[in-house]
Amino acid sequence: MSEHDKTEPFKVGWEEWVSLPELGLPAIKAKVDTGAKTSALQATDIEAFGPSDKPHVRFTVHPVPGNESLAIPCSAAILDRREITSSNGDREMRYVIASVLEINGRKWPIELTLTDRRGMAMHMLLGRQALAEPITVSPSESHCQPILDYSVYASTTIRTTAPKRRLRIAVLSREDNYSTRRLIEEGEKRGHFVEVIDTTRCYMAINALAPEIHYDGARLPRYDAVIPRIGASVTQYGTAVLRQFETLGTFCLNGSEGITASRDKLFAHQILARHRLEMPATAFAASPKDTRSLMELVGGAPMIVKLLESTQGKGVVLAETRKAAESVITAFRGLRANFLVQQFVKEAAGEDLRCLVVGNKVVGTILRTGAEGDFRSNLHLGGTAKRVKISKIERETAVRAARAFGLNIAGVDMLRSSEGPKILEVNSSPGLEGVEKAMAKNLVAPLYELIEARVRPAPLRKIKAQANVPAALDAGG
User: To the nearest whole percent, how much of the chain has pLDDT over 90?
Assistant: First the structure.
């Protein structure tokens, strides 16, 4: 505010249009009440979160009275918790937050208590502490300052101009490894509250009206997003927990269906084929009578024999001759194990590409080379990795593969063959260490950018259908 502005009289009536830009509320009608000491903002779904030394509160504001389809998610640091006595004598403990109040271009800091004011004519009350500026209140007048319009909430610009909101994010993981630590580190650096939840310690109340997820004897709070890092050994239970989060309406970075499909190697190859994505020739059969025909379908020896449940290169065998292939297949069948046989791409020479896909973009790619004498290039088995540039077709193939499974983050493994890229696998919980270190680049930031774009701010439901409703409300003053 300029010195000239400070000398000018500033008058407000008993009701005025105000803005709370730090909360993403460009227009809200407030009742000015000098009889009230503190100011209050209508809020629902009020929930404290974060560490005890830096507590925050998140809440939902319905700025248009009577229109709960318009919901603005907000969060702020907690200043205090006070007992407030309402005009009818009711006492209530309320969280107190700080924000900036704006009226006709003038701004000043105020404190707000959060309470459910649904059913009241106005969803904000300005008390005398908020009017500490040299302001004249005229209780017989209304709208001494310019009138705003609720239709601003129907504009798509609210998504880009809304302030950044601190998110509460759960990482479903049983391991304290590099990937989990990086997810926590990057999330906290961006101002979010990130919790690690052991997938197998979750348990669920499954019902139609109020489904819940419990953990260590208590119901889990509402999360803005869940990042699943579900190990292969707990896929079935982990995806069941993830389905429960989906039932609650939580945004899950990777969905349960995509994870389940990617873990079933046979189903995964069928999905790739359905989406016309190239892969090494692959065959599957249940009967031992079909062994010879099975090998012919992939071009004969040498060939790869791969357990359906294999991970990190384990359970993957290179059979260099027909006899060796028959021996491996007989052994696997003797163990009643399900397996695939697959064409061996000689020109790949023990190397493959790992593309890390986030959203619709390849954010990093490494070339993995197997240890000497090993056709497998997995880093867990002694392979090495280096940064590499990929072609446009390789980039497009990786993105298409992730989209085929509906995954927002995926590690897509491909071979470079004489016929173009061939997909080996789509990993729904890719390790981050090898790619990040080889790329010398922050690859977790794009992941959080995707989450923030999806859940901050939350979708404004039914705004187009009700865009004319606020105008009718405004007409009534």
Answer: 47
- Give me the CATH topology for the region 3-164: Cathepsin D, subunit A; domain 1 (2.40.70)
**Residue 416 Cα distances to 360, 366, 424, angstroms:** 21, 13, 11
- Residue 312: Cβ within 10 Å count: 14
How many residues comprise the chain?
Answer: 477
Over the stretch 239-290, which tens digit does the pLDDT of each residue have?
999 999 999 889 999 999 999 999 988 899 999 999 999 999 888 877 666 7
> Per mean pLDDT, which range of 196-200, 242-246, 289-293, 447-451 is the poorest?
289-293
Domain ranges of the chain: 3-164, 168-260, 281-344
Could you please report the per-residue DSSP string of 177-235? SHHHHHHHHHHHHTT-EEEEE-GGGEEEE--SS--EEEETTEE----SEEEE---GGGH
- Degrees to nearest 5, angle at CA 356 with 350 and 361: 130
Q: Where residue 427 falls among pLDDT bands split at 50, 70, 90?
A: very high
The closest alpha carbon to 101, from 132, 62, 69, 71, belongs to 132
Tokens matching residue 322 = 């027909």
The Cα–Cα gap between 440 and 433 comes to 10
Q: What share of the chain is helix, strand, coil (3-state, %, to 5)?
A: 30, 35, 40
- Positive or negative: CA dihedral 453, 454, 456, 458: positive
The helix-helix angle for 392-404 and 265-274 (nearest 10°) equals: 120
Tell how far CA 46 is from the center of its chain.
Answer: 21
Other C-beta atoms closer than 10 Å to the C-beta of 208 total 6
What tens digit of pLDDT does each residue of 16-57 get?
Answer: 999 999 998 999 999 998 878 889 999 998 888 888 888 899
What span, in angstroms and rounded, lies between the C-alpha atoms of 229 and 87? 50
168-260 and 281-344 have identical folds: no
Supply the CATH classification number for the domain 281-344. 3.30.1490.20
Query: How many whole angstroms separate alpha carbon 412 and alpha carbon 398?
Result: 6
Domain at 168-260: CATH code:
3.40.50.20
- Counting runs of H as helices and runs of E as strands, what totals does the chain give? 12, 28
The 3-class secondary structure across 417-477, one letter per residue, is: ECCEEEEEEEECCCCCHHHHHHHCCCCCHHHHHHHHHHHCCCCCCCCCCCCHHHHHHHHCC
Phi-psi label, residue 115: left if phi above 0, alpha if psi -120 to 50, beta otherwise: beta
Residue 166 binned pLDDT confidence (cut-offs 50, 70, 90) = confident
Strands of the 218-219 sheet, one edge to the other: 202-205, 212-215, 218-219
Whole-structure pTM value: 0.75
